[in-house]
């Protein structure tokens, strides 16, 4: 948001996440366009003045438009910052390859030539600085916002992995406590029957969805029946009664 006070009045301007800058010359025009800061690319559009004095219109499929990704934006900035003298690449879209290049004019440090297919546009010193500052700003926005969804997915997957490890560790702890309890009590272990479906398996436990839609990791050491690992099969499990009571499960 942009605030400015003019004649004791506060002018409020809401800044959008789109950018559109046009560089016109006598016969060629170049537009840099970013439609959203959440999209990891920009558009470069070149148009020419036609023989009748009118300009080509991209809306009528005239001129040449290419889409540059984050890698290409960085390379363009390297030229505009004078880190390298030139950069060129082949832009591939719908199996149509278009050569694009940015290069400083030989012997002149105030002119940059931009070539997109058979379109060429020269930028003077002021235009170069505007182009560079705008591209730098757009890149910063896109690094922050256009990659956020990927970061969220990574964080989500990491969170799931941590949660899964906690569940497995809990199941292992239950199994260990069960073994200790069994060793302390040499009596016959009481077991009960209960129906459910196997949802997942680890080395030491089964994730069982019981008939009341309760999912619990059950240590294999307290499952006394031989069961099928088919996840689509509802079957009867013979499990130590103390475990079923502890988890408030309805057993037979």
Mean pLDDT over the residues? 81
Low-confidence stretches: 1-6, 9-14, 150-155
CATH class of the largest domain: Mainly Beta
Strand order of the largest sheet: 3-4-5-6
Q: Please estimate the helix content.
A: 25-40%
Our count of domains comes out at 2
First-last Cα distance: 66 Å
Give the count of helical stretches.
4
CATH architecture of the largest domain: Roll
Order of helices and strands: EEEEEEHEEEEHHEEEEH
Q: How would a textbook summarize the main sheet?
A: 4 strands, antiparallel
**How many beta-strand runs?**
14
Structural class designation: alpha+beta
Task: Describe the oligomeric state of these chains in a short phrase.
Answer: single chain
Question: Topology of this protein?
Answer:
Blueprint: E1 2-6, E2 9-13, E3 19-24, E4 28-34, E5 41-48, E6 64-69, H1 70-80, E7 86-93, E8 96-104, E9 112-116, E10 119-123, H2 125-145, H3 148-184, E11 191-201, E12 205-210, E13 215-219, E14 235-240, H4 241-246
Antiparallel strand pairs: 1-2, 3-4, 4-5, 5-6, 7-8, 8-9, 9-10, 11-12, 11-14, 12-13
Report on the architecture of this protein.
The chain is an alpha+beta fold. It is 30% helix and 37% strand. It has two domains: 2-146, Transcriptional Co-activator pc4, Chain A (Roll), CATH 2.30.31.10; 153-246, no CATH class. The strands form four sheets. The chain has a four-stranded antiparallel sheet. Strand 9 and strand 10 form a beta hairpin. Mean pLDDT is 81; it is low at 1-6, 9-14 and 150-155.
